[in-house]
């Protein structure tokens, strides 16, 4: 483990200094596209204003014989697109694959000045982050980059889940972590065949002796992992995300899964198809009434200490802090999303009347 004194030193001579805090940039949806698929890549310019993050995916869902085309396609798209305030991320191939090294070398040296975050799949422990950290520093120095590229880990192995706190703490480059429910299910030998979401067989049943038939209640397969991931991220000042929801047609269940993640502390989720973009925008933006309420509590609480009653509900230092989380998120999103800014202003005015 690096000494605390060295933690914020660049890992290569000439590499940019690591950031001391992860900047909060809206990332309600990390929109995946295959950069080697010309039809999909052609949609990128039109998606820039629709999404918070565009991610050129090089790993799973890109066939083995299309890996190089995808990498070249991402270089081309990154150079040809004006991303404005929208972030550009990539998901490289896993570190045990023959492609990961070339992914990093090519992308950092050719489009490193445009890349915000590198997502690393199948992270098993801090050693994987340390490997990427040093390599990125060497490549940043070579490419004379002036700002560090951040790293995002996918939690999709049992080893990764058991080491999630160490992964979150492994480097000042760590931006966040996403849940990878498909690979995690396979790695854990769960008996599911889906990408995220619930399962009708994972349930609890009402006790006997009451109504017949006895009611059953579906449980959330992902709650334990997601909650553990959110705590690890919050404890280390990085951002947690729900990952993908694979049943593209089931927009209702997708919305439910995203909302559970939002309420639990996640800042965004992946959109795999254009139909999921609007769902993520709706779910990961606090509702205008919640924002108006949060602003009202903050105004009533003055310096944030003591206790007051608002509409029959006790408010104190702790509810003030919760309201600040909601209000500060709303401010950050409103700065990027004028429609949302209007809705928040209207709801706040209405609540003050
Ligand atoms: C477990 C994991 O690792 S998840 C992450 C890896 N998986 C991915 O990245 C998958 C990304 N998504 C996709 O590949 C596709 O959305 C698929 C294969 C799921 C479905 O694709 P299609 O069968 O083409 O869907 P559909 O016919 O509904 O598409 C409608 C339109 O949206 C386009 N589209 C679909 N997905 C995307 C996307 N992610 N980004 C941009 N455009 C897209 C299609 O090209 C199509 O365009 P058209 O109307 O001009 O023909
Ligand atoms: C997200 C991802 O890669 C998975 O679910 O496997
Ligand atoms: Mg995976």
From TrEMBL:
Superkingdom of this protein's organism: Bacteria
Keyword Protein transport: no
Matching InterPro entries: Aldolase/citrate-lyase_domain (IPR005000), Citrate_lyase_beta/mcl1/mcl2 (IPR011206), Pyrv/PenolPyrv_kinase-like_dom (IPR015813), Pyrv_kinase-like_dom_sf (IPR040442)
Key words of the record: Lyase, Magnesium, Metal-binding
UniProt-listed Gene3D superfamilies: Phosphoenolpyruvate-binding domains
HpcH/HpaI aldolase/citrate lyase domain segment(s): 33-194
Cofactor(s) the protein needs: Mg(2+)
A Pfam family per the record: HpcH_HpaI
GO biological process, one term: oxaloacetate metabolic process
Binding site for substrate: 91, 156
Protein name per UniProt: Beta-methylmalyl-CoA/L-malyl-CoA lyase
Organism: Actinacidiphila guanduensis
Lineage of the species this protein comes from: Bacteria, Bacillati, Actinomycetota, Actinomycetes, Kitasatosporales
